[in-house]
Every structure is written in structure tokens, then in C-alpha cells.
């Protein structure tokens, strides 16, 4: 990048310390779907929406649960920081990730002024090897005392997820490669927090899934047809 003489002279004399320093961080709300083990072999395991949390090992908020995150390094873009954090916590490089919102409350961090650029990430928990982290049911998080303003960030992330689920394919980034329609409907209902009529739900997902020639096995009930997301048949993932 080239500057004219006057501008270069200005930049040479410019002193950043004349202004207050503000740190920039990235916090990521990682969503995933988990299935509980049913008490009866005749029943399917209940699916739940989960969020990845880590226990802080240092002050402030030592031993409290928090979202995975970190400070933006001088040589990184914000997106590169998000990718680094996700790689560290999930061992995955290519997963769905989008910016959520920028949180800049003056007192959100007791150490200094920190502005957080929050992201949403969606993963298939069966393919995710997390370390130094745990999956927590989204319903439980509502009553959990989290570090910083991470409860506020999670609430905004849930609003985003619920707002996009009906008009985008966002939910499929959390689904296994093959699934039944009833499993998919349960996830929609879990996220939206309401029951859906089967006929209306099928219209919602029409054009988004294709059936396979496979059926469920050893599920303790009549085999169900397995489907897959049409996006898995093309390179349509937003990374």
C-alpha cells in the first residue's frame, strides 16, 4: 500500500498510545445435537440441542463455564481467530460458522475494555472430538451462571438459530449424514420449542432432503426410511 508524502509523514508521527487501548476477542456458540440412551429398547433416544462450554482455568471467573473463545492476535483477522479457536476445541477445520453479533458492553470484562465478536458454529457431535470442553443441554444453560456476558451471547445465538431454521438449511449442519424424518422433526421441535404438525413439517422440508434405499436397523421398532440432506450431494457448505 502506497501513501503520498504528506500522508506518510502523518503516519510516521502517529502515536497509537494517544488513544485508549481496546482488546478484541472472539467467542463462539457451538451448537450440536446429542441423543440420550433410551431406558427401553423399544423407544428411540431423545435428541437435544447442546452447546459447547469450557471451564475456565484462570481468573477472572475461574472454574465457571464459558463459551470457547480467545483474543484476536495482531497477525490474525477475526475470522482466522474463530477458525483457530474451533480447531483447538473441536479438532475440525471445516465446519459451518457465521458471525452473530458484536458485544461491546463497557463492563463485560473486569480486566479491561474488551469487545467480543461472537460467532455461531454448527457441528455433527458424532464427528466432533472435543477436548477441555463439554456439551451442555441448551435448556440447562438458561439456569447456569456463566462467565462474562456469555449467557446473553447464547440467547442471541438461539434467536438467530430459531429465526433461520425454517427458511435456510442451517439445521442440517448438525445432523448425521443419514436420518429419519421423525428424527429431523424432533430437532426442529427442540429448537423451535413447539410441536409441529407432520404434514406441515413435510412441506417445510420438501425439496431439502432425498430418500435413500436404507432403513434403520436394531432400533427396537419397525424400520424407518433413512434420508439425507441434498446439500451433502453438492459443495454448498458455507465455510
Short structural summary:
With 239 residues, the chain is an alpha+beta fold. The chain has six helices and nine strands; from the N terminus they run H-E-E-E-E-H-E-E-E-H-H-H-H-E-E. The chain has helices at 5-13, 78-90, 138-141, 150-164, 181-192, 198-205, and strands spanning 23-35, 47-55, 65-66, 69-71, 96-103, 114-122, 134-137, 209-215, 225-229.
- The value of Rg in angstroms is 22 Å
Number of strands: 9
Portion of residues within helices: 25-40%
Mean pLDDT: 87
Distance linking N and C termini: 29 Å
Q: Oligomeric state of the chains?
A: single chain
Write up this protein.
With about 240 residues, the protein is α+β, with helices and mostly antiparallel strands. Helices cover about 25% and strands about 25% of the residues. Strands 1, 2, 3, 4, 5, 6 and 7 form a 7-stranded mixed β-sheet that branches. It has a two-stranded antiparallel sheet with strand order 8-9. The two termini are about 30 Å apart.
Amino acid at each position: 500500500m502506497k501513501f503520498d508524502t504528506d500522508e506518510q509523514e502523518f503516519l510516521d508521527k502517529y502515536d497509537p498510545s494517544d488513544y485508549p487501548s481496546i482488546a478484541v476477542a472472539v467467542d463462539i456458540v457451538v451448537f450440536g445435537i446429542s441423543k440420550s440412551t433410551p431406558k427401553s429398547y423399544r423407544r428411540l433416544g431423545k435428541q437435544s440441542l447442546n452447546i459447547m462450554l469450557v471451564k475456565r482455568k484462570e481468573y477472572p471467573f475461574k472454574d465457571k463455564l464459558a463459551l470457547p473463545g480467545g483474543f484476536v492476535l495482531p497477525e490474525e483477522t477475526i475470522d482466522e481467530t474463530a477458525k483457530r479457536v474451533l480447531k483447538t476445541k473441536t479438532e475440525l477445520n471445516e465446519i459451518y460458522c457465521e458471525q452473530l453479533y458484536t458485544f461491546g458492553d463497557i463492563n463485560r470484562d473486569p480486566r479491561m475494555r474488551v469487545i467480543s465478536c461472537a460467532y455461531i458454529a454448527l457441528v455433527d457431535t458424532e464427528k466432533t472430538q472435543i477436548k477441555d470442553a463439554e456439551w451442555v443441554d441448551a435448556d440447562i444453560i438458561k439456569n447456569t451462571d456463566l462467565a462474562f456476558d456469555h449467557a446473553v451471547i447464547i440467547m442471541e445465538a438461539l434467536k438467530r438459530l430459531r429465526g433461520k431454521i425454517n427458511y435456510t438449511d442451517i439445521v442440517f449442519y448438525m445432523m448425521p449424514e443419514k436420518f429419519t424424518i421423525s428424527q429431523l422433526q424432533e430437532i426442529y421441535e427442540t429448537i423451535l420449542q413447539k410441536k409441529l404438525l407432520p404434514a406441515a413439517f413435510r412441506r417445510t422440508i420438501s425439496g431439502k432432503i432425498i430418500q435413500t434405499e436404507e432403513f434403520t436397523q436394531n432400533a427396537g421398532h419397525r424400520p424407518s426410511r433413512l434420508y439425507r440432506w441434498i446439500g451433502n450431494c453438492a459443495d454448498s457448505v458455507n465455510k
